[in-house]
Every structure is written in structure tokens, then in C-alpha cells.
Amino acid sequence: MTGLIDMLVQGLLLGGFFALSGLGLSLSFGIMRIVNIAHGDFLVVAAYLGVVITGLFGINPIVAIALIMPLMFVLGWGLQKTILNRAVDGGELSPLLITFGLSIVLHNALQEIFSADFRSLDAGPVEVASLAIGDIRIGWFALSILIVAVLVYALVSWLMRKTTFGRIVRATVDDPEVSGLMGVDTKKVYCLGMGISMAIIGISGALYGIKSSFSPLTGGDQLLFAFEAVIIGGMGSIWGTLLGGLTLGIAQVIGFSIHSGWGAFAGHLVFFLFLFLKPSGLLSKGDSHV
Amino acid sequence: MYDALTQSAVWRVKTPKSGLVAIALAAIVLALAPVAIGPGSLRLLVEVFTMIALAQAWNLLAGYTGFVSVGQQAFIGIGAYGMFAVALKMGLNPFSSVLVGGIVAAVIGAFAALALFRLRGPYFAIGTWVLAELFRIFFINTQYFGGASGLTLARVLRGIPRDVRLNTTYWLALALALGSTLLIYLLLRSRFGLAVRTVRDNEASAESAGVNVWGTKFMVFVLASFITGCAGAILYLNTMFVGANAAFSVKWSALIIFVVIIGGIGTIEGPIVGALVYFTLREYLSDFGTWYIITFGLVAIAAMIVAPQGIWGYVAGRFKYHLFPVEAEISKDLPR
């Protein structure tokens, strides 16, 4: 019984990370209708930014997040402005193929620059500190990721529902043309959207780099996990993505307990089960547009 | 003046012969090639031909039907493992096993479609990648299929002379490239082809015009899975060894997509042109390691933005020439 509860708790903690990373992916689809296939590679880019920044300034990677997020925001803004905005009017196909091309270019370029070796960001004793409740150990760091995820969700939800910016974004999503006529600079909204999405990828990537070892080639897996969190949760619902991430985390921990090679497999299997049995996901559309 | 709208117009595609003649000529010349060229070049040509088939299949999905897959490696790997399994475990001739590999890929493609078609738009693309990962992890952890060390065909190929093996593999690859090109060409010129492009242009209006959208996409996906599975089987028949990490690598989809984008998406000629460009570049630039993949990717991204019609699209637009015309026009001949 303790074993089962332990798996559930560890699954939830792992799921907090998937939820955070999934939010970056679902935001860019929600706002720009762009599925960012390079999502996982940008996550790895953020982790390597952590390597560079901690190397240059000798600071703790947790502190470096304060630099990584704005850098990733600028990268997202620039990417949208220079490349994706040119493709966004041509339907869904071309942004999809462009981000796929970017993904391949990015992971090969990272391999040239940093080699294919695995790295990890060292945040010190906080990484291994844990809290014991009975026989169950809860890692402080994993718990903080889950808390950060919930906070970021609350922040984005507030931003989209309660602010003028959120109203403009929702109007742009509903009808870009009419919003344009009403004086909204839709391309600028898209730039901001990609910037926010990438800032979230930035914090997820830095936490990912601290929590696990990464290499230029681990981005693909991260895209798939984020994607599964979005689909299991229900497309178009931000809070759904949070639940989807937690579900995926539990599935992976159970798979991993059967055999260390089957963790991701169990997650993929649960994803397919959802497509067969409940394709609309845990919370389907209606609750929020983004 | 003839008014298409007032007459019972006939959908026809003009100059139907050029493509068929080109395929027949290519078949004759290329089938004789093993007499003239050495084993190294034959192996390279096997790669070129399988890439043409892979690119035709992906182009049928993305260019003509409008849904993108980045998980084609799922069917490459399944085709290869299917072929290796029947050849090694059931003792079937490895060359005939290629067809089995294709059929296994088609069956799995059909089942996968039931789930994946529930994903709307671009999310479908990532779903296909999950499928590939599911199978990669399965094969790498299953000892029956060789686990992480993979499978080798050496045991069943031992009794077959080297020339016979090389030439048969070559002819299989040639047949697949020409066969898939011809099949897709004829398919697109038929009523079904019209349905396919209607689905691409607007699913809702296709549905209201009486096109079975789901069924059309399903048929296209299963056919593409079959061709991709056969290509995977031939690719690994050529190398005689299969490992799950390489066979199910997303690199395959990257190459296929770059080839089609650079060659010209939505044309039959594009995949062929793209494959020839890719292998020419690879022969000269492969010494530069991953830089040639990076360059190829950047060129493809640039092409998507500034020249989405690709090389063949540009040529066809410039010279008003199609070797394989598939776009239907209203015939000038009045029905009698």
C-alpha cells in the first residue's frame, strides 16, 4: 500500500514538470495555432543556456533562471518576428514544417557546439534534500517544480482572463481578421505570445537541466511528453494540461517500476488509450480558449 | 464560346502519356544497370530509390491530402522488423519477406489511424512521432527481436550468392520507386485523386460535396504506410542489419521532409528531384559531418518561407511543363 501511495506521489511530482513544459507548448498553439515541434529542443537550449551562464558568472542555476527566462523571451519574439510570422498566414502546414526543420537544425548544432555528452546543472544540496512523511520521501526540488508549475498556471490564467492583454489575445485567437480591423496588431500579439511561451520553456528547461541529465538529443522525448500532457488534459484547456501532466507522470512512474526501460513506454501507451477511449481529454474545451 | 458551367463538363487531365513513357524508359534503362556498375554504386542506388518511395508516400500525405506526419520512421522500422521477423523466425525467403514487411506496416498504420485521426491538424504530426517511439522502446526492450543489439540477416542470406543478393535488392528498390510513383500518379488522376485534393483544400466543403473525408484520409494513410514499410524492409535488406534506435530515428522523417520540400511539395516530380539533390549533396558534403544536415535543414526552412513550391514547382511554373500532370481541368471536348 505504501508502495502504491509512493508511486502516486512520485508520479505527481514528475507530472508537475510535464505540466509546466506542456503549458509552453499549448500556449503557442492556443494563441498562434502553431505547434512548435522544436519545443523539446528549445527546452534543451534553455538548459545549455544554464550551462553557459553558470559557467560565466559562477552562479547557482536556480538564480540563472532570472536570466534564462528573458533571454528565451527575446529568442521567441525574434523567432516569431523574423520567421514564423511570415509563415503563419499560409495555413497550419508551413509553421509546422518550419519548426520541425528548426528542431533538426538545433539539435545537430547543439551537438557540434557542446558534443553529444550528457550534462547536468548542479544546484547544490537543494537537489537531494527531501521531506519524509512516514515511509514516503518527497524531494524538495521536485515539490518546488510542482508548486512553480501551479503558480505559473495561475499567473497565465489570470493574464488571459483578467487583463487587457488577455482580452486582446482572446479576440485575436477568435478572429484575427476582425481584431486586425479593430486596431489590434495581430503580428505583435503573436510575437508576445511566442515570447511568453518561450519564457515558460526557459524556466522549464532550466529546471529540467537541474532535475535530470540532458544532451542535445534528449529534446525529442521532451516534446512528446509535453504534447502528451496537452492531449491527455484536453486541447484548449490550460488547467487540463496540468491534470494531463500529472496523469502522464503517474503512468511513467508505474511503467518505470515494472522495468526501468518501460517508463516512457507506459506514458505513450496511456496517451494512445486516451485517444481511443476519451479523445477529448480530461478537461475538454469550453473552460478557456488558450 | 464554350461555357463550362452550362455544359455537362468532363473532368480530364491533359497529356496523359508523358509520365507513363518516362516511367517505362526509366524502368528499362535502370533495370539493366547492374550489368554496368559495381556493388558500391548499386547499394547507393538502392538508397536513392527507397528515398524516392519514402518521399512519394510522405508527399501523398502532406502534399496532396494535407496531413503531415513526422513519424514515418514508425513504418520504416515496422517494415524492417516485420521483414526480419518472418525471414529469421519463419524461414520465409528474405526477398519475399519485403512484401510482408509492407503489409505489417499497413495493418499497424490502419489501427494507428483509428487513434491518430482523432488529433486535429498539426497535433496529428506529433502523434505519429509518439507511435514511432512506442515501437522503438518496444523493440529495444524485447529480447525476442534482439533487444538493444538488433537483428542480423547473415544467417538466412548465407546460402545466396552475393551478386544475386545485390541485384535482387536493387531490382526490388527500383520496382518500389517506380511502382509507388506510378501508383500514386494514376491514383491522383482518378476520381479518388480528385477527392484527395478536395479534402486537402477544405475538409468541410469536401464533406458537403459528398466526399467521405475520413475514409479518403484512411485509405491514403494506409497506402503511405504500406509503401513506407516496404521501403524500410528494403533499406535494411540492403544493410542486412537492423537496430531499433536507427530504424525508428526521427532523422528519417527529417530527411524525407527536406527532400520533398526542396524538390517541390505537391508534385510527383518533386520527391524524385529532391532525392537526387539530396544524394548528390551527400556524396560531396558528408565529410563535413553534421554540418551538411544543418545546411540541408536551413535550406529547407528558407525554402518553406521564400520558395514553398520547391525546385520542381519553380521549374513547372516557369516553363509551364509537367512530366506528371495530375491537376484536373475541364475538358475542351464536348461530351457527345
TrEMBL record, chain A:
Specify the protein's topology with respect to the membrane: Multi-pass membrane protein
Where are the bilayer-spanning segments?
Answer: 12-35, 47-75, 96-118, 138-160, 189-210, 222-246, 253-277
Record InterPro entries: ABC_transp_permease, BCAA_transport_permease
Which keywords fit this entry according to its UniProt record?
Amino-acid transport, Cell membrane, Membrane, Transmembrane, Transmembrane helix, Transport
Main localisation: membrane
Q: Does the keyword Transmembrane apply?
A: yes
Stored Pfam families = BPD_transp_2
- This protein's source sits in the domain of life called Bacteria
Query: Which cellular compartments is it found in?
Result: Cell membrane
| Entry keyword annotation includes Transmembrane helix | yes
Similarity section: Belongs to the binding-protein-dependent transport system permease family. LivHM subfamily.
Question: What's the protein name?
Answer: Branched-chain amino acid ABC transporter permease
The species is Parasedimentitalea denitrificans
Automatic annotation (TrEMBL), chain B:
Q: Where in the cell is it found?
A: Cell membrane
Q: Which organism is it from?
A: Parasedimentitalea denitrificans
InterPro entries registered for this protein in UniProt: ABC_transp_permease (IPR001851), LivM-like (IPR043428)
UniProt superkingdom = Bacteria
Concerning PANTHER family, the annotation shows:
ABC TRANSPORTER ATP-BINDING PROTEIN, HIGH-AFFINITY BRANCHED-CHAIN AMINO ACID TRANSPORT SYSTEM PERMEASE
Protein name (record): Branched-chain amino acid ABC transporter permease
Per UniProt, the keywords (alphabetical) are: Cell membrane, Membrane, Transmembrane, Transmembrane helix
| Residues that span the membrane, as ranges | 20-37, 70-88, 95-117, 137-157, 169-188, 218-242, 254-279, 291-315
